[in-house]
Amino acid sequence: xxxxxxxxxxxxxxxxxxxxxxxxxxxxxxxxxxxxxxxxxxxxxxxxxxxxxxxxxxxxxxxxxxxxxxxxxxxxxxxxxxxxxxxxxxxxxxxxxxxxxxxxxxxxxxxxxxxxxxxxxxxxxxxxxxxxxxxxxxxxxxxxxxxxxxxxxxxxxxxxxxxxxxxxxxxxxxxxxxxxxxxxxxxxxxxxxxxxxxxxxxxxxxxxxxxxxxxxxxxxxxxxxxxxxxxxxxxxxxxxxxxxxxxxxxxxxxxxxxxxxxxxxxxxxxxxxxxxxxxxxxxxxxxxxxxxxxxxxxxxxxxxxxxxxxxxxxxxxxxxxxxxxxxxxxxxxxxxxxxxxxxxxxxxxxxxxxxxxxxx
Length: 360
What we know:
Layout: H1 3-15, H2 20-34, E1 37-45, E2 51-57, H3 61-67, H4 75-82, E3 87-89, E4 111-118, E5 121-131, H5 138-201, H6 206-232, H7 237-258, E6 263-268, H8 276-297, E7 301-306, E8 310-315, H9 330-339, E9 343-348, E10 354-359
């Protein structure tokens, strides 16, 4: 494919992504491939001298773990976050602005860096190193500049998309609150009044008290039915639109960005064929299990795996005694699995991590 065709394909690949994490990973992957670099990275700065996001391509997970914590905005990594211009260097180690890298860091030589701009704002920077066929050229710089411009659009759109999802969830919560108040709260208020009237009549007029108690039963049944109708409408819109696999992937990616001290992994072995109610149960169980693991496990890694039988959430944290567990949401998860026609198993021991498996 000619260079223009490869660039067009790269731009389209970036533009198709929706989540911020997907956009960033796609940018570094296509930039590395497009310019034949051995290594590629992209950093999005935070306001504390570090990086809110830092994704790489060209190294293994084991190498990344060995390198250590996320880098700071030092040396050449920080130059393009302060100066809105590209940097093309024959040997990064000889540049006076070069600082250092950890012992496990790969050796970099030739270097090409490009800021990602939104007007005058620097959203981040793309870093490429070790071009396989010669040094980076002025033409490479121009190509990366085009990709960075489209990356800025895609990155901005991705952020707007995620914010719109948050607003949609907030609006949905408000709608549900109104529904609960209108459809159920008033019914429960009537139920309380009728029950109080029945209690007052028990001694003086048992026949009228019995009639009031029948009304209590009718009101309770109506309230339960209306509450069930409201709950039935709570199936996540994202789950209906994107399906279980993509919804789980987005949940895991989102939590991975928020909880930077724990590495979250998502894998699909075989996509199960589940009913809408079973998909929702699986999503809620995973959300509860992730919440518990992130809050209590002190884990370095959490794995979420979707299999032909159901879902599994596993961590390498401190573990616990399931028999004595209280307040970890296990009863709720078991009840969701039961209602979906499945079962939930919990395997854990102090110091041995935790595995929660929902079979459907």
